[in-house]
Design goal:
The complex is a heterotrimer. By secondary structure, chain B is α+β, with helices and mostly antiparallel strands. Chain B has five helices and 17 strands. The chains are: A alpha+beta, B alpha+beta, C alpha+beta. Chains in contact: A-B, A-C, B-C. Chain C: It is found in: Cytoplasm; Nucleus, Nucleolus.
Chain lengths: 283, 258, 234
């Protein structure tokens, strides 16, 4: 299906508004939309809302598989981001669009290559059985900045997830159901979070957390993945704009502030959910 | 006038009255697709002829009237009934004025996106004062306010920017500036009612220009970017507000603006 | 601050005369996504489904059908790739593909496409029934002209021959047969059936009768949640 075209009038208005430091929804230049984190009934299911419109769902699941030959003592992480047509009429099913490939790559770089998850703890029997942890991210409604929402949803879902407990006796592996033994959380070293910056007029103006219409008029995008210890996990610039060193440094400073805020929010949400589950079990 | 398509039912006799009563009883109620109003045997004859006009959401199906959209049953004297619903997708109808986005120029026509299931065509000559030599200045991406002269399931929808006497009558290409945004078709109908409360209240806050298309697109332009944004945001938020909530919001905005 | 959507849950009481038509709590939210023309989420017991509808929208020339609207149903399982559907998800897709045209009045509107996109948020036992309900609410939200509404009801027959509507996961595992019916709102007729396991003809008839009774509660729930939604406009 075709996406509604962007009219010249909207484009002009957006650019003038950005020059006047004004945004469509009344936010300031560096403001994020309201982030809402909710959890499903199952472990490892997390929904992230950006404002009232952008919405992403992440689900973590796991299964026992044979490890990769070159890494016999490491568990496997698998990421899959889906752009369903529900999120936007422009997303076509079963097509590897450029955007989809870009988002999947970025998610992998942010969460796998940053080694934020202890893959060695996912090994059950060296060379024979390891856990494969799978993260499925579904974009449910696209109103810009899918990348940040996806990275928040994915890392929160990973923190929330519990895998079944196992017991190894010789060659035999017993997997316990949640009723028999409490499932165990993954061991996570740090939480990398993506922060997107969109640039306008060849980098003169900059916005944090662009909405869909802002994304359509932007010249370039810079995505910085960082954790709360201010360690950079990945930096990616797209759109072919030239950025000065100072601009990138400024963005990284803003990112560190945003990441600290978001991490705080995630921890609070996880804690609330834990309390709610605890109360629920007692009832 | 909130109606799009009119379907006239000619009903005869006592049953008509019974039917009208059953209709009147449920005005203001929420109805769901599949709800039926039936009038029994058409046998009894009488000389009174009554017309029932069915608006959007109501269809005639033999001796019954079928509700085919969810929403509130509305009535207007004498015998006009329709379902007031909150829909997003636009279906073109002849005579309606819409805001279109020009997507292409091909031969003698512009292709225009109106948000329906097909792109509409708009001839170069369907502008005031346009001739073969004197073509209107329209670029791809421009907005046009125009009216459907053809809109049916068998033909490509066609738009014009002139009325029957060849005058622009408010239609044509938009000038620069202003902001376009999308709301539900229900809200658009509310705004287009003559003496619309929302519009009247909004005009009191500060002056602005507004064009409302039946396809759910609204264009506004106020003195400054800030004011345009305020108007757009207020209109968008009217979607889910009761009249009471809206009045409180308008008061607040008016205080801040002055 | 007003929410842009409504959450409405309702506990359906167990009726004393027909203990077998007991249904668990439902929840429904319409118009919760901004991009699709219509959207709805439906929660039934442990199962939760999100549905989005686009249409009547533009159709590609290659997909155009000369005498009717093009239907497309996309199912997105929460875990795994959408291209590889599980049996139940595939079945849901198939059912919706045939159910939607029956309940919609779109027969004459060709050169248009209709896309129903369903995301299975929490996969529970009544995936099919819940997806049908979510899709119906989404179609209603999109404002597409409909002849009637439809809903899905699941029944399970346990080894002793008792019929349970809306079975839990455990009940479903132990049951001898599981059936799901799609029932229309106009005459309470069966529009689609899906069965698994073995059962007698009289058991099938009993299940249909029970489902028809249970459907009344679901349709009442539809009416209540739509009324809530429009209450602001009254």
């Amino acid at each position: 299906m075709r996406e509604t075209p962007l009219s010249n009038c909207e484009r002009q208005f957006l650019l003038t508004a950005i020059k006047e430091k004004k945004r469509l929804d009344g936010r300031q230049t560096y403001d994020y939309r309201n982030i809402k984190i909710t959890f499903g009934t199952q472990y490892g299911c997390c929904i992230v809302d950006l404002g009232k419109t952008s919405r992403v769902l992440a689900q973590v699941s796991c299964e026992l598989v044979a490890p990769k030959e070159n890494r016999p003592t490491e568990g496997i992480l698998f990421f899959n981001l889906e752009l369903s047509q529900m999120a936007s009429p422009a997303f076509e099913p079963s097509r590897q669009s450029e955007l989809l490939v870009k988002l999947n790559r970025q998610l992998e770089r942010c969460l796998r290559n940053s080694k934020c998850i202890d893959t060695e703890s996912l090994c059950v029997v060296s060379g024979a059985k390891v856990w494969q942890v799978r993260v499925d991210v579904h974009v449910l409604n696209h109103d810009g900045n899918i990348m940040d929402a996806s990275s928040i949803a994915a890392i929160t879902a990973l923190c929330h997830f519990r895998r079944p407990d196992v017991c190894v006796q010789g060659e035999e592996v017993t997997v316990f159901t949640p009723e028999e033994r409490d499932p165990v959380p993954l061991s996570i070293y740090h939480m990398p979070i993506c922060v997107s910056f969109s640039f306008f007029e060849q980098g003169t103006y900059l916005l944090v957390d662009p909405c869909e219409r802002e994304e359509r008029v932007m010249d370039g995008l810079l995505v910085i993945a960082m954790n709360k210890h201010r360690e950079m996990c990945s930096v990616q610039s797209s759109g072919g704009i030239m950025l000065l060193k100072e601009q990138v440094l400024r963005c990284s400073k803003i990112a560190s502030v945003k990441v600290a805020e978001v991490t705080e929010l995630i921890n609070k949400a996880l804690e609330n959910d834990k309390k709610a589950r605890y109360v629920f079990e007692f009832l | 006038f909130p109606l799009r398509r009119k379907r006239v039912l000619l009903l005869r006799g006592k049953n008509t009255e019974a039917m009208l009563d059953s209709f009147k009883e449920r005005v203001g109620e929420v109805l769901l697709p599949g709800d039926v109003f039936s009038f029994e045997s058409p046998g009894s004859e009488s000389n009174i002829q009554d017309k029932v006009i069915c608006g959007p959401g109501l269809r005639r199906n033999g001796d019954e009237i079928l509700v085919c959209k969810s929403g509130i049953l509305r009535h207007k004297e004498p015998n006009l009934y329709w379902i007031d619903s909150q829909q997003k997708r636009y279906v073109p109808a002849k005579g309606e004025c819409v805001i279109g986005i020009v997507t292409a120029k091909s031969g003698d026509v512009f292709k225009v996106d109106v948000g329906g299931s097909e792109q509409a065509s708009l001839s170069y000559l369907a502008f005031e004062g346009a001739t073969k030599r004197n073509r209107p200045n329209v670029q791809v991406g421009d907005l046009v306010y125009s009216q459907f002269i053809i809109a049916n399931k068998d033909m490509e929808p066609e738009l014009v920017c002139i009325d029957s006497s060849g005058r622009a009558n408010g239609m044509g290409v938009f000038g620069t500036g202003g902001l376009l945004f999308k709301v539900s078709l229900g809200l658009v109908r509310k705004l287009l009612v003559p003496q619309s409360e929302i519009v009247k209240d909004l005009e009191k806050i500060f002056p602005f220009e507004m064009v409302v298309g039946m396809n759910g697109r609204i264009w506004v332009k106020a003195r400054s970017t800030q004011q345009t944004l305020i108007v757009a945001n207020i209109l968008e938020s009217c979607e889910n507000m009761t009249a009471q909530q809206r009045r409180t919001l308008f008061k607040k905005v008016a205080q801040n603006a002055s | 601050e007003t929410p842009h959507c409504l959450v409405h849950t309702m506990e359906v009481e167990e009726s004393s005369t027909h203990p077998t038509t007991a249904l668990r709590e439902f929840g429904c939210e319409q118009n919760l996504l901004s991009r699709p023309d219509g959207s709805a989420s439906f929660v039934q017991g442990d199962t939760s489904v999100l549905a989005g509808v686009y249409g009547p929208a533009e159709v590609k020339v290659s997909k155009e059908i000369y005498d009717r609207a093009t239907m497309e149903v996309l199912i997105q399982p929460k875990v795994g790739l959408p291209a590889i559907l599980s049996l139940s998800a595939g079945h849901t897709r198939f059912s919706l593909f045939y159910l939607c045209p029956v309940s919609l009045l779109l027969s004459r509107r060709y050169k248009a496409s209709l896309c129903v996109s369903v995301c299975l948020c929490v996969q529970g036992p009544q995936l099919l029934a819940c997806s049908l309900n979510a899709a119906c609410m989404a179609l209603m939200d999109a404002g597409l002209p409909m002849r009637c509404l439809f809903c899905g009801v699941t029944c399970a027959i346990d080894p002793e021959g008792h019929i349970h509507t809306d079975p839990t996961a455990a009940q479903e595992r132990e049951s001898r047969a599981v059936m799901t019916f799609a029932i229309d709102s106009a005459e309470r007729r069966v529009m689609m059936s899906s069965t698994k396991g073995s059962f007698s003809v009289s058991e099938l008839q009993q299940c249909i009768a029970v489902s028809q009774r249970a459907s009344g509660k679901i349709f009442q729930f539809y009416r209540d949640s739509v009324s809530r939604r429009y209450s602001k406009m009254l």
